[in-house]
Every structure is written in C-alpha cells, then in structure tokens.
Amino acid sequence: MKGLAFYGAPNGHAHLYLVISDINPDDGTVLCVNITDSANIPDKSCLLNVGDHPFIKKESAVFYWQAINPELNSITHGIKLGALTQQANLLPATLAKVQDGAKASKFLKPKFHLYFQYF
Questions:
Q1: Which domain of life does the UniProt lineage start with (predicted)?
Q2: CA-CA-CA-CA torsion for 77, 8, 54, 92, nearest 10 degrees?
Q3: Nearest one of 51, 42, 55, 49 to 87, comparing CA atoms
Q4: Which of 62, 71, 89, 96 makes an SS bond possible with 46, Cβ 3.0 to 4.6 Å?
C-alpha cells in the first residue's frame, strides 16, 4: 500500500520505513526507503522536516542507498505480529516529495528503478 509507514528493522536496522510504490504485480514487492538523521548521510535528494510526518522530530533524510523491496504481505504480516509498528500514513505531498527524491538520487541502486513505473 503506497504511503504506508512503519517502524522496525526489516533489514537489521530499526528506522521509520516508507512504502513509496504500488505493488509490483510480478512478485508482490514494494519499494521501501528509510529515514535517518540528515547529518548521517551524504545524499540530500530528499530532506524531511517536522510536519512532513508525525514521527519526524528533526531534519531527516531519506536513505535511498538502503532501499529495500520486501513483499507487501511480509510487511502487513510483521505489523500484525507486532514485529513492525505501523505509523501514520504519508500525506500525498510528502509521498510525492520522497518519490521525486528517489528519481533524483544517485544513491538509489539501479535495480530499484523499475519501481518508478509503480509510483
């Protein structure tokens, strides 16, 4: 579900994750990116501030280098089990900003560019 936000560690690092694509119909996966302190990474393709999402308390950046593409079912299952914590969904303007950043970022791995068609 595009716009879904959740907190957890699907790749071993607990962060706020954002689902920024619709489902890839070929395999049921979605593109997810995480949010981190903007001082921690060189990629400034998409900076988020207080007000962009209730979870964000200071200037943050989307960490496109650590994008993941899990099956949407695994995310919803993780939320149901309590392994992941659902957060407020993204506002449409924030989702568009993060998607635009994905297209502009030199740090998003090329294998994830196929998800642009599902924005």
A1: Bacteria
A2: -50
A3: 55
A4: 62
Delineate the domains of the chain, giving CATH numbers in brackets: 5-118 (2.30.30)
Length of the chain in residues, anyone? Answer: 119
Position 9 confidence tier, pLDDT thresholds 50, 70, 90:
confident
Single-letter amino acid code for the residue at 104: A
pLDDT tens-digit readout, 63-76: 999 999 999 999 99
Q: Looking up tokens 């694509």, which residue turns up? A: 21
In three-state secondary structure terms, 78 is helix
CA 23, 100, 106, 39 dihedral sign is: negative
**Whether the model pTM is above 0.90:** yes
| Cα→Cα distances 40→3, 92, 93, 106, 107, Å | 24, 26, 24, 17, 14
- Give the 3-state secondary structure of residue 103: helix
